[in-house]
Every structure is written in structure tokens, then in C-alpha cells.
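for the record, two folds in this file. i put them one after another cuz i was lazy. first one right below, seq on top, C-alpha cells after. the second one comes after a little note so u can tell where it starts
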Amino acid sequence: MFKRQYIINNMKVICIGAGAAGLFYSLNASKRGAEVILLESNFKAGKKLAITGKGRCNITNNKPVNEFINHVVRNPKFLYSSLNQFTPQDTMEFFESHGCPLKVERGDRVFPQSDKAQSIINTLVNEAKKAGVIFKYNEKVISCYKDQNEFVVKTKDNVYKSDLLVIATGGKSYPLTGSLGDGYKFAKNFGHKIIDLKPALCPIKIKERIHKEMIGFTLKNVEILAKTQYFSRKVFGDLEFLPGEITGPITLTLSSLINRFDEVELVLDFKPALDNEKLSNRILREIEKTPNEDVKHLLSTLLPKEMREFFIENTNFDVDKKLNSFSKKERLELIDSLKHFHLTFDGLEDIEKAVVTSGGVDVNELNQKTLESKLVPGLYFIGEIIDVDAFTGGYSLQIALSTAYAAACNIKLIYDK
């Protein structure tokens, strides 16, 4: 897996942030001979990692790089070098060869066999300790700067100095895990541009009233079309309702695509597996079978009970009307409502509740092979802090590991064996 091994002559490195990126960078840089101090504001490593994948930790996605890259939303081309240096398959080999067996589930998503994120964290921490990484917990960085050829990092109680500085502080989502956005402040102080931060992989707010019976209900196998002034995108899958918002896999995907638009048209297709003709025939059969029932009965054959009142409230059908008097025009209107049910976009959930942060350090100011700053020699940014993000499915964690590995393998070297 490690294509080349290096010995670095007493190079001192400080890495800020003991998440997936910081841990993986530190252990790889230390294996190559660097003296690495890993600073973490929490009392332990991997606090955000522990809650990913609902505590199961979807560590990567077992797709080849040329397919993986299609699931990256922002700046996918920037990641080609990092992903090719350390692929999803390399990730799987790393964990399995270090005593953490994995399994591949639907959609090529990769999890630890234990179904516990702690298995991933333990592997990273243990290997980092074996490599000689010095862990410093409860060390919240107050400031960092470069003094001639030396980086100075100040915490509340200590001052650290190093040859290289790596910022792996993550984004602004899940602030309770320590992701407070401090890294963006540090980047700005070094002169870096920060692309506007937006929530990604988060619920979408809608203006329609969510009925009590809908809260927590999952609408399966539906399709949502999202239209902006520049593009339209359909996503198929499951949708969940919460007070004032929709969530679930397809909503999370769409949120990453529309998070930089104020006006978005959302159109829900309750019956994506049926075209208009097939749906019309199904409705006609029900009318012929129960002509004396009312329209409300017809809806009970087409929609889950949790959705019927919501549908009725947001359409104009006379649900007490008998089916034997339900006209062709009304039937076509019903089909259109089932296939093109409009939801009113009301923005996204706050960034603190997003799975990941979209935006961050401008990739144009970073070397895509090494992740080193083009503005400040010896300064590196890895993981979620940079302006790249991806869909759910293990992609974001792989990006963290790949950028960490690339930075660790390409630091300035004294000896090359």
C-alpha cells in the first residue's frame, strides 16, 4: 500500500485536529520519520467520527476512483491526485491489515464488521501511537502563525513550534464534537480565501404543514425533482418527514446540490415506477371495481395512510365525490398531482445540523498533489476544511483519508530511500 518509504531528518510537524484526516496524516507522517505532535481540543480523538453512519462509521465506498469521483459535488478534479495516491481499496487494505475487518453493503458502502465506529477510531489511534505520534488532548488552539521558517501554535496553556503545520480541524457541522470552524479563522490569518460555507447533506425546509401522523414517516421509492435557474436533477429513493422539513437519503443528496440557490422548485413523484398511462389504467380499474366509493377511498389505494390528509390538503379534489361521477378531466388532474406534487422550498437546515460543510479553503490556493499552501510554504490543509464535499455513502471520509495520505507522503524530504 505504501508505495514509497522515506526517512525525514528530525522534521517537526504539528497537526491540529484528531479526526479521521488528522489521525491518518499523523500516523503516516510519523512512519516516514517526522516528529508529529497531534493537538486535539477534545479529551479524546475521533469524536465526530464516532457518530458517523449513525455510529457504524461508513469509512469508504468501494468504487474505483473514476466512478468515485462522480459522487463528489465540489471540485472533483482537484481530488484526482489524492484519490489515486490512496484509493478506497487502499483504505480497505489498511484497516483489514491492521485488525479491523470490514464489510461491503448496498451501494458499495464499507463499514467495520463490528458495526461500531469505535473499531475504526481504535485502529487509527493505536497505529498512530505505534508510529510515535505524540497526542495532546484538551489543547484548544488559540492562534497560529509563521515566524520566519518556523510555525508557532499557541493554546491556552502552551506554545508549540514546528517546521510544518497541518490544519485538519474539519468544518462547522456538529459543533458539539468540536467542529467550530476555527480552522477557517486560522486559514484567513495565513491569507487564504474561504469559499462561502453552506450546509451539505442536511434536511430541506418546506412551507407546507406537516401533519402529526407524517412525523417520522418514511415514504419509500419516490422521486424528487429539484429545479434551479441553472439545472434540474432527479433523485430516487426514500424520503422522511419531520416538523417543517423533509430528510432522508434523497433529500440529503439534493441539499448538497441546491445549497447555493435561494429559489428552488421541488416536485415530488409519488409513483415514479408508473408512467401516466399505467397509472391511469390502475385508477380506472379501481373505479370500475368500486364505482360507489368516494375519491377518498381511491386515494387509500394510491397513497400510504400517513400521506392522505397531507395530499388532500394541498390539492383541490372533492374527496367525498363518488367515483362513478369522477370525470376524465379530474382523473388526469389526479394523475398529474401524484406525479408532480409541488413542495415549497424554504431553505436548508442550519449548517450546525448538516452532516458536512460545503465550502472552505479555496482549492486554487493549494497544491492538488501535496495539499500544501501555495501562499505559505510548509502549511497544509486536509479533509473537510477544504472546499470539497461529496454525497453520502462513505465518500467524505475517503476524501479525508486520501488528502491526509497525500499530504503525509509529499512533505519536504531530506533523504529518499
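(here's the note) second protein begins now
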Amino acid sequence: MRHMRFAVAVSFVLLLAGQVAAQDMEKHFKGKTVNLVVGTSAGGGYDIISRLIARYAPKHLPGSPRFIVRNVPGGAGLKGTQYMNRSKPDGLTVGPHFTSLVMKELAGVDVPGFNVKDLIILGAPTLVDDNYLICVDRKVAKSWEDMLKMGRPLRMASQRPGIGRVPMGGEFVQLVGGPIKLIYGYKSTGEELAAFARGETEVVTCLERRLPRMYPELIEDKRLVPIYWWNAPASDQWLERLGGKKPHYVFDLPGLKLTDSQKVAFKTAVNIHQHLRAFMLPPKTPKPIVDTWRKAFKATIEDPEFVKAAQVANYDVGYGSPEQYEEQLATIQDLPPDGALFFQKLMGEKR
């Protein structure tokens, strides 16, 4: 009986502590304004998702604070990140982080005003298993084997080395000696697709949720031959629309010799980039505030009204937890020397 009374007392104390903490968070946020800092100009993907979160998060945070979206563009997200990291760690400043900055730090580059070790992630709003697929121009080749026989690398457009998960499959194959050469300097995905459409490049990423909307004529004209995929396999329906055979998995491409470290580095880099637009808090934010925000963020992303609004804006919604993100960071940091060097090359930090 004594043990039972003790257990009941402990449960009551814990319950009371939880109620007090909830009351403290209600008091902390009530009547306040949350600054949602977006490190890009208005109108892009980061901005749109952030404004949707600003609309639906108040009902999931204690005290239902107001939200103001502040666009702080510059330095490919660096200026907004620096603004965020200088902010008071009181839970009243929040915003999306930039995986490109995280990748630079992981590749050994000291990014001013940012330290990946101080990163406090709330979660990712658009974590989905995209079926990344590389296609070759049907006028140039009909298969991977045809590409190997050509004796020269085929051109693929990109903005800059290590920019993101979409061109990364091409960069990976280029690094391991495959017949692809990245041509850098394009300003957007639209420019990259336009370069392929006019025959300036010969290889392109065929993203199912993007290509039909941006360049449907490439599909209608049967210009695209599926070659290889990574992250998730393409659906049978998508392959049928493209009119090609089932492509290779990137790690099974004939003629390439891959090490385990190269595979881990590539796969983990893709997984980190999948957490695109993950939200963060300023360094040293107290744990009770972090826990409150994480719970509210998850509830926001899973809110049916938020999901519907995001779909109207042509964004797929998927919640990625902080724990998932931190697991990927740890994997990169634990790579052996050869894997770390390959990761640096994949990010464009080593030649």
C-alpha cells in the first residue's frame, strides 16, 4: 500500500508539473507576436509554406500568438539565418532553415553566423518520398548502356555544386566516373528544363510532381527516356507516361564501382535535403519552449486545413521529426575519412 500511495503521489506531482508548464507557456505566448523569418524574397516555396504555417500555427500554440512574416533575403538564405541566430531565444522568432548552409558546415566550411551544432529543428513540413529520376534525351540515347557506349559524358544543367537533392543524382554519377557532366550557372529549375528542351543539355531530372506542370511538351513528344532513380522508385503510371522501360537504381548502374562510404554519403545527403524548409529556433532556446513549439509544429503540419491549403498551392505535405533529421546529421558526422572526402566533393567543396 505504501508503494502504491507513493506511485499515486508521484503521478499527481508530474501531472501538476505538466499543468503548471502548460499554464506558463500559455502566459508566455498570449498576446505576443511571433516573427516568422524567411530568408528568401516573397513568392517562392519557402515563403509560401511559411505563410501557410503562420496562418495555421496560432491555434496550435498556447496563447494563440499573432504571426508576422518577415522576408530577409540575401546570401542564399544566409542573411535570414544570421538574423534568426541573433534573435532572442524566447520562442518568438522562428523560421525555415536552409539545408545548403547545413551541408556547407558538414563539409567543413565555416559559415559566418551559423553553427550546425547549435541547430534546433522543430520539424519539416514537406518531407515526402520524391521519386527522383534521371532521363536522357531520346534523340541522343535510348538507354544507360547507350550512354556508356558514346565515349563522352552527356551534359546536365544545374545552378551550382551541392545545391540540392534534385541535381544530386547527376552529381553523384559524375563523381564516380559515370557518363554525365554537370554544367553550372543556370539560375532556376525553369532555366534547366528550358536548356534541355532546346537541346543545350542532354540529361535532366524528371520529377513527376514538377515536369507535367512546367514542360508537358517533353512528355507529350516522348523526348524522355528513364535511365536511373534514387530516393524512391518512379510509379508505373509515370514510367508509362514517359514511355520508357524500368530504369536502374543508382547504386546498381552497370559499369560503376561504388564503395560503401560513397553510398552512405550520397544517401544521407539526399535524406538531409529532403528536410527542405525544416523550421528552426534560435540557438539556446530553453527546452520547455522548444518542446512546446515542436508539439505545435507537428500539430500544424498534420492539421487537415493546413494540408488542404498546401495542396491548393501545389505543395505536398509530410511531417519530418527533429529526431529523423538529427539521425541523418549524425550519420554524416560519423563517416570515415574517405566518405567525408566524397561528401565534400558532392557538396562542391573539394575538387
